[in-house]
């Protein structure tokens, strides 16, 4: 179940990143992380800490609740 949550969140991040027309590399540069980190988050491999969710929410200009809407 826990891994499913990470996959859902990662899928939501990918969805909103694509809506904002950002590549993984562009998003990684804006967040000061590697492209592989973004890839691993989007694929549900890495658990996403709260501070990263907040950073993603601000970067993509979406409410945090929209990233978590399918999880909560």
The total beta strand count reads: 0
Biggest beta sheet attributes: none
Number of H/I helices = 5
H/E topology pattern: HHHHH
Q: Using the 3D structure, state the CATH architecture.
A: Orthogonal Bundle
Describe, in short, the structure shown.
This is XRE family transcriptional regulator. Helix content is 68%, strand content 0%.
Please name the defining characteristics of this protein.
72 residues, mainly alpha, 434 Repressor (Amino-terminal Domain), 0% strand, globular, Cro/C1-type_HTH
Please give a structural write-up.
The structure is a single chain. The protein has 72 residues and is mostly helical. It has a single domain (2-67), classed as lambda repressor-like DNA-binding domains (434 Repressor (Amino-terminal Domain)). The protein has helices at residues 2-19, 24-31, 35-42, 50-60, 64-67. α2 (24-31) crosses α3.
Topology:
Layout: H1 2-19, H2 24-31, H3 35-42, H4 50-60, H5 64-67
